[in-house]
Amino acid sequence: MTDKDNRKILVLLDAHAILHRAFHALPDFTSPQGEPTGALYGFTAFLIKVIREMKPDYIAAAYDLPKPTFRHVAYDKYKAGRAKMDDALAKQINRSQDILKSFNIPVYSAEGFEADDVLGTIVEKIKNSPAKREIKTIVASGDMDTLQLVKGDDVVVYTLKKGISDTIIYDEKAVMERYGFGPERIVDYKALKGDPSDNIIGVKGIGEKSATELIKKYGGIENIFAKLKEGKIEAKPRVIELLKNGEEEAQFSKTLAEIRKDAPVDFSLEKIPRKDGLDKEKVEPILNELGFKSLIDRLNGENKKKNKEIVSIDKQAAKKAGKEIKTNSGTVAPEALMEAVEKPLAKILAEMEQKGVLLGVGYLKNLSEGKHKELELLKKKICKLAGQKFNINSPKQTGEVLFVKLGLGGTRPKKTATGAYSTNIAQLEKLKADHEIIADIIEHREISKLLSTYIDALPKLIDKENRLHTHFDSFGTATGRLSSQNPNLQNIPKRTERGREVRRAFIADNGYKLVDFDYSQIDLRAAAILSGDNNLAEIFQTGEDVHALAAAKIFEVKSEKVTPEMRRKIKVINFGVLYGMGINALRQNLGGTKEEAQKFYGEYFKSFSGLKEYIEKTKKFARENGWTETLFGRRRYFPEIKSPQEHVRKEAERMAVNMPVQGTSADFIKLAMVKIDEKLKNAGLKDDARCLLQIHDELLFEIKEEKIVQAVSIIKEAMENVYPLKSEEEKKMLAEQFKKAKLPSVPLAVNVEMGDNWEEMISYK
Fold first, then answer.
1. Structural domain for 552, as ranges
2. Distance from the CA of 477 to the CA of which of 74, 175, 273, 639 falls in 20 to 30 A?
3. What's the structural domain count of the chain?
């Protein structure tokens, strides 16, 4: 497999960092023999994800050795603040090499050096080798220190954002966007601000903001201190004084933070087996031995089983955590929630994955032919408008045509970190009125995206019965929402006509109908419950249009006098407040002045004072405790809420307010799925009413035509009566802080639609 520009892909695994991340992110799984496997499971899942997504030609792994490194020799307090490695993790680190051996992946380490240095050395060897132009290197790691190694598009870092499944790729542009400077300055950044996790002191008193500003203005620390001695540093007197007193510490910190590229590593591409040398007969026995049967299915490209490992959570681990269990998304779930919801849900998701959803392959083939013809016509039109032939899929060539040849974008068009002209969608939208070519380029991109992501891609993933199987992760998001991957079927577009054409490809089997059950305004209902806002609760109790009734209340008119514009404004703020929409964003959505937006906000919260009080209390609670939780006690932590950077703190506060709302909605639908499954079984309808997909607040079923009336009644009733909780077992799921609260009665409502395909559906009454 090669990269788009015909380079071969080399993946370098920072095995130590990935195992550490997995150990702290996942529950304490155990193998059938009783050995700890939580970190091993996460490590192996990540490895399979890398193989499937990156499609590498070569893979190698790097490890730390247990002996001290040159950094420990130079500075005896290096990493001194870290707790002693857990014995369970140490065992899994050793065992992980057996997994890599079965995958035919070589392991590299060097005495006196860390895994980062080994990776840096290998990257340097590739850089200086005759094959450098033929290789793209992807460093897969959970350690942000490796961003130092990023070089253009030749060396990128594939790292973990949250848990073990949420990933991001950092090329040079992405590093610039995150930090405001390039990868070569990461080490200078650490030299100035320090790194508490490694006990690197930096310049005492210099934080993220000051370090960033200094580097953006003056470059590396050598230049910063040279300018300082010349009296040419423009900064606050306090910062200048800190720098004067901290030069030695900065230089020493840089020595500790910098990834070495001279480790004694005997590496060459010729010694690495090609990835296509994977011997599944060697891999499967060790995965079976560890109890990772679901990963065998994933390795084989099958999604027939769910992670049953979640069902065998170590009870002792739960007790140690105060009846709370960590999940791989970084959230913490109470044991009661795991027992009542997550465990039975695992089996349900496995069945959904195994069944899959039927795809109209012939329809997609015809759609593909039509879209490729559209693309060809668009290509001819765009090149004619440009006055030359060029590769429309190349941002570089497109930028040169738009900004040099056609002279669009004014005298100073926006450029990327690499110096190329920016042609992202935001920039193109700004230029739409300047030339008709822009709309055509946007259209070309839309069609190309649909083809590569859905129309041409999905038929390649079906089984022999034309059914498409996704993988559901119950712990894939920080709010508790299900995620879908390989492929992601929660993101099928529906807002554009072209997107809706894709949805028509999802069809019902013969003798069945697709039936969609969608919670109505579930997040807003959850907010009404959590906040205890009686005014908002009363509106939902009427069963009428919540946006219209809220508009009547705020604009002080009778409900029949509410105009579409009034309703639109209320809808914007109803949902906006749950996601932290500020005054400026509200002004942009509503139009008018900032003062008008502020007045509107004031009127809204005057009517719904309980909601306002809840938002402020939640922010305060998060600032004091570092976390917030759902109605059922699913907790998320926000370390960024204590950041010295205001915009980081504000973003953490926004997420802290949103998490209980969105997380409670997620818990509602998960609990509903468990109840539905039980009720369908009891009614003997399990084979006649198949749950195929969960799309956040929505469930898609395939139901036998003669059983629709009975099944719809059962499913709708279960969803609408999932709250208030009735049984004692369910009530145990409520967090302590809500047990004493007077939660208002807020009815849940479900909209039902039915059809032969996922797009062309009619309301079912």
1. 524-630+638-660
2. 175
3. 3
